[in-house]
Write a structure and sequence with these properties.
The protein has 15 helices and 20 strands. The chain is α/β, with parallel strands linked by helices and 477 residues long. It has two domains: 277 residues, Aldehyde Dehydrogenase, Chain A, domain 1, CATH 3.40.605; 180 residues, Aldehyde Dehydrogenase, Chain A, domain 2 (3-Layer(aba) Sandwich), CATH 3.40.309.10. The chain has a seven-stranded mixed β-sheet, with helices on both faces. Helix 6 links the parallel strand 8 and strand 9. The protein is globular, with a radius of gyration of 23 Å. The mean pLDDT is 97.
């Protein structure tokens, strides 16, 4: 067990006695490595190290924080090919998507390097003569970050970078399925000169490591991305401990296709939104809501395009869709495929592919209704329900009839439909003639309802979650 990839606590790589195998979902014979399985004691040590390091980091020069984050971004860029291949092997994204995600991580660190020295405050006139008012944002202290398997470098980056830029110390717990990219991020931050204890990595099971972070009284805030079920438990735990909490959870995102849409554009947007990244995105287009007048032509074109997708090894050139991330995830997807048929849908595709690895054909559920379980529950795989509607008003009503509210989209050639949808959609992000998945790093990310709770991620708004507001009054005499 000497080759275990270790947890990073207090600036040191800590020895571990237990580890998890990290295997390639496209090739189960490909062992990526053995990664430490941490304990609650490791969390306690990491939080203690973070608590000791945070005051110097938070009260020190913002230029130091900016320099560390900028160097981290530079190192991520320099290791883009390595990180992209690692990501493709452990998560199953195509190599092109994996390198793009690695690039995004670098961009995030560069962006927040700038934010570290643009930390805003405000000076206001008091209503009382001789009194000055300053409004300041201060770091929270120690922040626990719990990240998912589907974006194993981008999401650790978009949580860590603003948390560090704001002057917090971090304990990162990555998904147990995909620890390798987070481990590489810890290496990068160490090389970038991040002071000991400011960034800590504890890998292991969410039920143990995540719970220990939530329960630790010295953790001031938790930022979590994952399932709604786990998110609700974290919210309850944070409320009990009076912690600040940020949750990004599921989605059942609608893409409306109007009869006035450019059909080629609509098919491409739905193909991308539903099936790229193997549908394993919280912003994936899982409900395709199609106006009756164009429904049959749209289905014919989309099903042909879906059938032509090249599903295979993510490291091979030309692959458009890789494997499902794990056997357990694939089993859940196949259960939903069976359920769609039982609910009365005509199912196109969706079967397990006859090859080594966790491969599934993309699926369309035709004749779906919005009240079906397959139209209401997040599948998190390459499956999309096609729902026929009469007109725009029905399309908007169906799009909004969901417990989630992360991303929504419409394909239309009419300005009136685009404008009405942007105003009427009950989602945190709205796309017009674009896939529901795919966002920029410098603007807010988040949703409503069962999709999100707490402050927005990414962009300048992310700094609001990772800081506390202090209002200071001074009598000048």
């Amino acid at each position: 067990m000497t080759d275990i990839k270790r947890n990073f606590i207090g600036g040191e790589w800590q020895a571990a006695t237990e580890a998890s195998e990290n295997r390639n979902p496209a090739n189960p014979e490909d062992l990526i490595g053995l990664y430490a399985r941490g304990t609650a004691a490791d969390v306690a040590a990491a939080v203690a190290a973070a608590g000791a390091a945070q005051p110097g980091w938070g009260r020190g020069s913002p230029q130091l924080r900016a320099d560390v984050l900028r160097r981290a971004g530079d190192l991520l860029l320099a290791r883009n090919d390595e990180l992209g291949r690692l990501l493709a092997r452990e998560e199953g994204k195509t190599l092109a998507e994996a390198k793009g995600e690695a690039m995004r991580a670098a961009q995030l660190f560069h962006f927040y390097a700038g934010e570290a020295v643009r930390h805003p405050g405000e000076k206001l006139d008091s209503i009382r003569e001789g009194v000055e008012v300053d409004v300041m944002r201060e770091p929270l202290g120690v922040v626990g970050l719990i990240t998912p398997w589907n974006f194993p470098i981008a999401i650790p980056a978009w949580k860590s970078a603003p948390a560090l830029a704001a002057g917090n110390a971090v304990v990162l717990k990555p998904a147990d399925l995909t620890p390798a990219c987070a481990h590489l991020l810890a290496e990068v931050l160490q090389e970038a000169g991040c002071p000991a204890g400011v960034f800590n990595l504890v890998m292991g099971r969410g039920s143990e490591i995540g719970a220990a972070l939530v329960q630790n009284p010295d953790v001031a805030a938790i930022s979590f991305t994952g399932s709604e079920r786990v998110g609700r438990g974290i919210a309850a735990g944070c409320a009990a401990g009076m912690k600040k909490v940020q949750l990004e959870m599921g989605g059942k995102n609608p893409m409306v296709v109007m009869a006035d849409a450019d059909l080629d554009l609509a098919v491409n947007a739905c193909l991308n939104g539903a099936f790229f990244s193997t549908g394993q995105r919280c912003t994936a287009s899982s409900r395709l809501i199609v106006e009756d007048a164009i429904h049959d032509a749209f289905v014919e074109r989309l099903s042909a395009a879906m059938g032509a997708l090249r599903v295979g090894d993510p490291l091979e050139a030309g692959t458009q869709m890789g494997p499902v991330v794990s056997e357990s995830q694939l089993a859940g997807n196949l259960d939903y495929v069976r359920l769609a048929g039982e609910e009365g849908c005509e199912v196109l595709g969706g079967q397990r592919l006859n090859r080594p690895g966790s491969f599934q054909a993309p699926a369309l559920f035709l004749g779906a209704r919005n009240d079906m379980r397959t139209s209401r529950e997040e599948i998190f795989g390459p499956c999309a329900s096609v729902i026929r509607v009469a007109d725009f008003d029905e399309a908007l009503a169906v799009a909004n009839d969901t417990p989630f509210g992360l991303s929504s989209g419409i394909c239309t050639g009419a300005l009136k439909h685009a404008t009405a949808f942007r105003r009427g959609s009950k989602a945190g992000m709205v796309m017009v003639n674009l896939p529901t998945a795919g966002v920029d790093y410098h603007v807010p990310f988040g949703g409503r309802g069962g999709s999100s709770l707490g402050g927005r991620e990414q962009g300048r708004m992310a700094m609001e979650f990772y800081t506390s507001v202090k209002t200071a009054y001074s009598f000048a005499g």
